[in-house]
Amino acid sequence: MVNCAKCNGQAALKRPKNGDALCRSCFFEAFEREIHETIVGNDLFVRGDSVAIGASGGKDSTVLAHVLNLLNERHDYGVKLVLLSIDEGITGYRDDSLEAVKRNKLEYGLPLEILTYKELYGWTMDEIVAKIGLKNNCTFCGVFRRQALDRGAWKLGVNKVATGHNADDIAETVLMNVLRGDIARLQRCTQIVTGQEGMLPRCKPLKYTYEKEIVMYAHFKKLDYFSTECIYSPNAYRGHARTYIKDLERVRPRAILDIIASGEALSVKEGVSLPTITTCVRCGYISSQSVCKACVLLQGLNTNEPLLGIRKTSKANKQLQRPPPTSSTSDVSQSGGCGSGGCACNPDTPQSLDF
Ligand SMILES: Nc1ncnc2c1ncn2[C@@H]1O[C@H](COP(=O)(O)OP(=O)(O)OP(=O)(O)O)[C@@H](O)[C@H]1O
């Protein structure tokens, strides 16, 4: 029998993060305490905050909702929590995972708001994939989701958004941004709170939490989540980064934290020009070009030119300085959006690589 390193009882697992043998209850204690320390150490919340948890029904956001709800009570954060789900319109995937979110809403007694791509943009992902095929569809989905979460948060009147991005996700993003030479995103992607002026702050309380431990926690706690991969997401580039990091982790478990620390330690030399943040002339959301990536992509879909937002968008941006077509079904291009959210996309990057 292997003894628990903390209480000397019978160990039930070996922690992927540091190899400690722990019993279940000592693992729960360590897992929850570390997330609490991340929250407190980084001032993620203040009393009175209203926080929308991006709830996809997957393991990460389900564990996030469970743990935030628990810590909020245990440590009396005084924070109001709300679940916010975006229904991208992916039959056989998001409809099923949203059922898990609806069950969690009842289980945790938290309000839930669901926004759909169809109502926000006039298109479901099923329709987008039918139009453009499986290549590039993740670009549409990622850009629309980022803006949709902001729009949902403004609608709910919250002042913060929390997402379930974990340590593995962040290490992968660091690597991908290094390989792409994307300095602006490299600088941003390790930040635990993102969101420039005019945007709602977004935080990642699971930034230092290993994916394997999230899976273990969800499994031992018997949490209700949906575990199937997106049917439209080949996302080969992230897949390569993921495989590489898993290989590194096998040799050196700390590699994930080390990559995050390396990303955090990088700083951009003075004088290097970074994209400036402005407001999209079409929808009013924050953008790094005069027309935001969501509007460019939407224009492409609505005018039968779906690659408009995929190719170099400075060109597309010039094209879009013209007024939008009146036939658009989206409230983004028709009404100018709510004018208060934050789509901080970098239109020249083919995939969404920051959070
Ligand atoms: N459809 C959605 N609705 C609301 N929030 C979402 C949605 N998709 C993703 N998010 C948020 O963004 C985070 C990272 O999303 P990603 O697509 O990387 O999924 P993931 O790593 O599989 O996470 P999860 O296990 O929570 O689905 C999620 O944990 C969640 O907080």
UniProtKB/TrEMBL annotation:
The organism of origin for this protein: Plectus sambesii
List where in the cell it is found: Cytoplasm
Function (record text)? Plays a central role in 2-thiolation of mcm(5)S(2)U at tRNA wobble positions of tRNA(Lys), tRNA(Glu) and tRNA(Gln). Directly binds tRNAs and probably acts by catalyzing adenylation of tRNAs, an intermediate required for 2-thiolation. It is unclear whether it acts as a sulfurtransferase that transfers sulfur from thiocarboxylated URM1 onto the uridine of tRNAs at wobble position.
Q: In which pathway does it act?
A: tRNA modification; 5-methoxycarbonylmethyl-2-thiouridine-tRNA biosynthesis
Q: Does the keyword RNA-binding apply?
A: yes
Q: Where is the tRNA(Ile)-lysidine/2-thiocytidine synthase N-terminal domain?
A: 51-229
Q: Does the keyword Hydrolase apply?
A: no
Q: Which positions in this protein are listed as binding ATP?
A: 54-56, 60, 86, 164, 169
The record, for SUPFAM superfamilies, names: Adenine nucleotide alpha hydrolases-like
What domain of life?
A: Eukaryota
Any one GO molecular-function label of the UniProt entry: ATP binding
Q: What keywords is this UniProt entry annotated with?
A: ATP-binding, Cytoplasm, Nucleotide-binding, RNA-binding, Transferase, tRNA processing, tRNA-binding
Entry similarity comment: Belongs to the TtcA family. CTU1/NCS6/ATPBD3 subfamily.
The protein here is known as: Cytoplasmic tRNA 2-thiolation protein 1
Biological process (GO) annotations held by this record are: protein urmylation; tRNA wobble position uridine thiolation
Task: Output the Pfam families linked to this UniProt entry.
Answer: ATP_bind_3 (PF01171), zn-ribbon_14 (PF16503)
Record's GO cellular component, any one? mitochondrion
Please give the residue ranges the record annotates as the region Disordered.
314-355
Identify the EC number(s).
2.7.7.-
Residue span, Cytoplasmic tRNA 2-thiolation protein 1 C-terminal domain = 279-306
Record HAMAP family: CTU1
CDD domains to which the protein is assigned, alphabetical: CTU1-like (cd01713)
Which EC class, in a word? Answer: transferase
